[in-house]
Design a protein that fits this description.
The chain has twelve helices and 15 strands. It is an alpha/beta fold. It folds into two domains: 155 residues, Alpha-Beta Complex (Quinone Oxidoreductase, Chain A, domain 1), CATH 3.90.180.10; 160 residues, Rossmann fold. The strands form three sheets. Strands 3, 4, 5, 6, 7, 14 and 15 form a seven-stranded mixed beta sheet that branches. Strands 10-9-8-11-12-13 form a six-stranded parallel beta sheet, with helices on both faces. Strand 11, helix 7 and strand 12 form a beta-alpha-beta unit. Helix 3 packs across helix 4 and helix 3 packs across helix 11. It binds NADP nicotinamide-adenine-dinucleotide phosphate. The site of NADP nicotinamide-adenine-dinucleotide phosphate has 28 residues, from helix 1, helix 3 and helix 4.
Length: 344
């Protein structure tokens, strides 16, 4: 099969398209012929070697695919798995190894695509929508009428979070760069904030005096402190990314990472109690360890899709062999919505 490999940690040019042996599914695994691959910010961090548990190069990056089942696992071989047949259109979460024509994944990580959903939309769903759902619904317990501030609202997780928040009846504030303000309004952000023009904490102070019930903040560093200050009593700060460590050059900089770490607030349980607030760390890798939690979330996400309440917005597709260009595009912050790689 053809696969895109990281030959050494670094900028997008480190990708190399290679011919490799097809994967052989182990017991309990499903073999999938890949049609589309979701590109995540995490893939950029994998390429740079700063994503947790990134193997030493050479390795195949990526976390999610949509495709067709070639070989199904034995029925019931895996707990929390659907019974699948060859030819079924599916979406799957992978632990690396997604940028390839074939993947073998545990059956528990595979879901049949709902009727009417294409491979490109399918590949855009798992990481972004499960992260947003875990934050807003499962861990956040947000209720209709609550207010949420979503940072990076024009991105992959951001767009998914806006859609889920609106589907759940929340009022949405969203931040993004200046070129993305119109997009924010189009996807349903009720109060768009251009972080270059305005201080988001001041905007919240003015338009949600007393604070908001949730802030979703994947930026990290000093942003977490300011986001925490935007919380209303009983509010939740959701930390789920640390984009501040990645620079525009696509390289990891120790200086930038050290600065962001130094600016990271230390939350004291006594202060949290006094404020009546929660700091929630969302991590899909951990959520996956909790039985059928993500499968239930995925089923609910598919129900919202069928009801027309959510729909992935595809910013741009690139053929698999142009994975470097796809990374460059995300790195330059050009994506509004999701970037997907397609496989012929
Ligand atoms: N914990 C988890 O399980 C989990 C799961 C999925 C994603 N994440 C995290 O969530 C975040 C968003 O992921 P995504 O895949 O949806 O990416 P994305 O939002 O589609 O792309 C990144 C966007 O982040 C914004 N950004 C802000 N500061 C940045 C910086 N210093 N460097 C680069 N971009 C910056 C940019 O938007 P503007 O131009 O508007 O600033 C950029 O377009 C990432 O931090 C990712 O690691 C975590």
């Amino acid at each position: 099969m053809r696969a895109v490999m990281v030959r050494r940690y670094g900028p997008p040019e480190v990708f190399e398209l290679q011919q490799l042996p097809d994967p052989q599914p182990k017991p309990g695994e499903v073999l999938i012929r890949v049609k589309a691959i979701g590109v995540n910010f995490a893939d950029l961090l994998q390429r740079m070697g700063i994503y947790p548990e990134t193997p030493k190069p050479p390795f195949i990056p990526g976390l999610e695919v949509a495709g067709v089942v070639d070989k199904a696992a034995e029925a019931g071989a895996e707990e929390n798995s659907e019974s699948l047949r060859p030819g079924d259109a599916v979406v799957a979460q992978t632990n690396f190894n997604a940028y390839a024509e074939w993947v073998a994944v545990p059956a528990a990580s595979v879901s049949r695509l709902p009727a009417g959903m294409g491979f490109t939309d399918g590949a855009a769903i798992p990481v972004n929508y499960l992260t947003a759902y875990e934050a807003i619904v499962t861990m956040g317990n947000m209720q209709p009428g609550h207010r949420i501030l979503i940072h990076g609202a024009a991105g992959g997780v951001g767009t998914a979070a806006v859609q889920i928040a609106r589907a759940k009846g929340l009022f949405v504030f969203g931040t993004a760069g200046p070129a993305k303000q119109e997009y924010l309004r189009k996807i349903g952000v009720q109060h768009a904030i251009d972080y270059e023009k305005a201080d988001f904490a001041e905007v919240i102070g003015k338009y949600a005096p007393g604070g908001v019930e949730m802030v979703m903040d994947p930026i990290g560093g000093k942003s977490w402190r300011k986001s925490y200050e935007c919380l209303a009593p009983t509010g939740r700060l959701v930390t789920y990314g640390f984009s501040a460590v990645a620079g525009p050059d696509g390289k990891m900089s120790r200086i930038r990472a050290a600065k962001a770490l130094m600016q990271t607030p230390k939350f004291n349980p006594l202060d949290l109690m006094k404020k009546g607030a929660a700091v929630i760390g969302v991590n899909l890798r951990q959520a996956r360890l909790r039985g059928d939690r993500l499968r239930s979330a995925m089923n609910e996400i598919f129900r919202l899709y069928a009801a027309g309440k959510i729909k992935p917005i595809i910013s741009k597709t690139f053929p698999l062999e142009q994975a470097a260009a796809a990374h460059q595009f995300v790195q330059e912050r050009k994506n509004m919505g999701k970037v997907v790689l397609t496989v012929k």
